[in-house]
Amino acid sequence: MTSTRPRVELIPIFEDNYVFCLIDQDNQEVLVVDPGEAAKTSQFLKENNLKLKGVLLTHHHNDHIGGVSALVSEHPAPIFAPAKNKNQIGKADTWVTEGESVKLGPFNFEVLELPGHTLGHVAYWEPKLKWLFSGDVLFGLGCGRIFEGTYDQAYTSLQRFKKLPSETLVYCTHEYTEANLRFCKMLSNLDNSPITGDSEELEMYENQLLSRREMDLPSVPLKLAVELNVNPFLLAKSVSQFTYLRDLRNKQ
């Protein structure tokens, strides 16, 4: 019997968050990443007759974990969370650290510790499917604010994306791409801007993005190969360039 390739369903919550449902279609099971609220996710599971296999958390911010307790009380399943966030998250079945594996059904994730946005932030990388669930580290044409870590840590974390296969799909948790596009266009008009991306590729990116958003479609997942050519935070050549960009973005 031929197995069906797993797929990812995006559930919009709040103003601009996504909850990710990773569906094992052969077994009608699902993993959920960063359920900031429970109601819509629970409804999705019921409507599609899916069994919750596990919950993956990237960091401790409430818009990523706020729905965990309600979700697993209704759909019991193990919770996987970053070990460095034990104090903030409080409850998990498995605390994960750099280099560990999380194997659930057909999925086999590698845990990447990516401090910067928060000190304990992790991402989940599925090498066979080339999926990366990156939380708030990288966004379309942007990156996460530095709340707990240092600029050096955030810059170093972003460098790790460059070592992944170019065909990687990045599932970031916020729909910030249009706002970040406006920042990129502002940057391109500055003298001595650190941005060195391909202007034609950025224009193509803009056309595709606006077309998707007009149809109320998400910009996520991101294509890593494209982000590497147009995302200014990935193009920054040093911590000082990255710091300049991040501080400038904070003022927008």
Essential attributes:
252 residues; alpha/beta; Metallo-beta-lactamase, Chain A; six-stranded mixed β-sheet; 14 strands; 33% helix
Structure characterization notes:
The chain has helices spanning 39-47, 62-65, 68-74, 86-89, 151-159, 177-188, 199-214, 224-230, 232-235, 239-250, and strands at 7-13, 17-24, 29-33, 51-56, 79-82, 94-96, 101-104, 107-113, 122-126, 131-135, 138-139, 142-143, 169-172, 222-223. The chain is α/β, with parallel strands linked by helices and 252 residues long. The protein has a single domain (7-250), classed as Ribonuclease Z/Hydroxyacylglutathione hydrolase-like (Metallo-beta-lactamase, Chain A, 4-Layer Sandwich), CATH 3.60.15.10. The chain has a six-stranded mixed β-sheet, covered by helices on one side. The radius of gyration is 18 Å and the shape is globular.
Low-confidence parts: none
* C-alpha termini separation: 53 Å
Mind telling me the CATH class?
Alpha Beta
> CATH homologous superfamily?
Ribonuclease Z/Hydroxyacylglutathione hydrolase-like
What's the gyration radius in Å? 18 Å
The biggest sheet amounts to:
6 strands, mixed
Number of domains: 1
Helix amount = 25-40%
Percent range for β-strand residues: 25-35%
Determine the number of helices (DSSP H or I, runs of at least 4 residues): 10
Strand order, sheet with most strands: 1-2-3-4-5-6
CATH arch. level architecture? 4-Layer Sandwich
CATH fold annotation: Metallo-beta-lactamase, Chain A
Helix-strand makeup class? alpha/beta
User: What integer is the average pLDDT?
Assistant: 95
Give the overall shape, derived from the CA principal axes: globular
State the total count of DSSP E strands.
14
Order of helices and strands: EEEHEHHEHEEEEEEEHEHHEHHH
